[in-house]
Amino acid sequence: MAFETILVEIEEGIATITLNRRDVLNALNSQVFTELAEAAENLAVDDSVRAVIITGGDKVFAAGADIKQMALLGAVDVAIGLRPSKIAFERLENMPKPVIAAINGYALGGGCELTLAADVRVAADNAQFGLPEIKLGILPGGGGTQRLPRLIGAGKAKELIFTGDLINAEEALRVGLVNKVVPADQVLAEAKKMAKKFVSRGSVALSLAKACINEGQRMDLEMGLEYEHKCFSLLFATEDQKEGMKAFVEKRKPNFQGK
Ligand code: HXC
């Protein structure tokens, strides 16, 4: 996949998307969003890809949407021109395979919101998170007002969004914004380790578990439990379920085929 503002590499079933605007701290302009949306669409249906990692490289994740570009936009330009950001984030969030954000340095504004669209977040000990949009006279428009409170609770999310203050990796771990903090030079390796573990599991079961969690957040508990029960039942039609349980009985590791 050839893009200008992102790089996409696929190795051993794991696709790594790297944001590639280093000179502006990976500021996300409309081209990045359009390319991310296209990459996510392609990776979602690429059978050779079983997990996706998104990173900004070893210095910075992303300092947010491109302020110099946004400064020139009117309301209609934003409604139309920045819509790919919503599409990109939703495609990453909903793709039927795990998405891991590997975060070094700043993850601010739209950069932080991009990490929220991932399933799990691995952060460097030097990472810094924040939604500073309020300081620009706007609000977090890349899902921050919706995904952040669902992840860490409304109280802490409101504090971060109303102040625009940054938090470090340790605090991000404490409030549940990230899953894991590791030394800065081990972030990508740790994300790959996690991706490999996900890939070793039954991919149909994993994708349905992801769907249950994501769809469940749009339902009340009763409907969510019903949805879960249907997905659970469906898995008994897969070879992976037969193999997983047979392997347990035979005291060996399962060899899942993803069907
Ligand atoms: C455009 C940016 C940028 C951004 C940094 N740069 N962030 N350009 N948009 N969001 C550019 C700078 O202009 C500069 O380019 C170069 O990157 C290096 O940045 P510096 O500021 O010189 O670096 P430093 O002093 O280390 O400060 C780092 C920083 C600061 C604290 C991250 O850059 C910063 O506050 N950036 C803005 C963060 C922010 O407000 N993000 C939210 C954006 S709104 P030049 O050419 O001058 O050297 C948003 C809405 C999301 O994200 C909506 C979703 C659709």
From TrEMBL:
It catalyses: a short-chain (3S)-3-hydroxyacyl-CoA = a short-chain (2E)-enoyl-CoA + H2O. CDD domains: crotonase-like (cd06558). Keywords: Lyase. It comes from the Bacteria. Its EC number is 4.2.1.150. InterPro entries: ClpP/crotonase-like_dom_sf (IPR029045), Enoyl-CoA_hyd/isom_CS (IPR018376), Enoyl-CoA_hydra/iso (IPR001753), Enoyl-CoA_hydra_C (IPR014748). PROSITE patterns: ENOYL_COA_HYDRATASE. Pfam families: ECH_1. GO terms for molecular function: 3-hydroxyacyl-CoA dehydratase activity. The keyword Methyltransferase does not apply. One of its GO terms (biological process) is fatty acid beta-oxidation. Pathway: Lipid metabolism; butanoate metabolism. Belongs to the enoyl-CoA hydratase/isomerase family. Homotetramer. PANTHER family: ENOYL-COA HYDRATASE, MITOCHONDRIAL, ENOYL-COA HYDRATASE-RELATED. This is short-chain-enoyl-CoA hydratase. It comes from Desulfosporosinus acididurans.
